[in-house]
Amino acid sequence: MWLYLLQGVGYGLAAASQPGPLQTYLISQSVTRSWKRTLPAAIAPLLSDGPIIALCLLVLSQVPAWLNRFLYIVGGLFVLYLAYGAFKSWRDFEPQAYQPGSTGGQNLFKAVLTIALSPGPYIYWTLVTGPILIKGWRETPVNGIGFLAGFYLTMVGSLAALIVIFGLASKFGTKFSRVMLGISILALFVFGLYQLWLGIAS
User: Fold this and answer.
1) DSSP state for residue 40 in the 8-state scheme
2) What residues have CB less than 8 Å from 117, skipping those under 6 apart?
3) Domains held by the chain: number
């Protein structure tokens, strides 16, 4: 179970620290509103991802074994691509890109809707985390639960930290974001290689 828990932590950190619609919304609210009012929105992935995961796993459970191996390889390449994109963001890091102006909406529903209408989670759970979850669950449900626990505890915790730090002091928030981004690059690179190895070795 520990291997799946560790993978969940790594992918959860990577998902939370990658700049995207959800992160932009949370940061804008913590900067323009108080972090206390924005903090509940950190749990948005727990509310939005259930149907997304169910849909992606339903599709993945119907594919033959050879296609599952192919998805592992494609997913590994996709994770390496994400690592490269994250590296470029880290290299050309601009603090002002993380401080957008005020946006409409300021509640949990808006954050959930932002996730549900973004293609990222569907791609992520189909190509990257979905095959890992299925593999772990088939070995033993404890592995699947460990992966989900590691993923969502890390993701929600990281989003909450992002909200608090940006809400308290934006100058510390940008430094924190760059550090988080750097850690996510390493996590994505390692897990991308590991997923490629799983696809090839299986």
Assistant:
1) G
2) none
3) 1
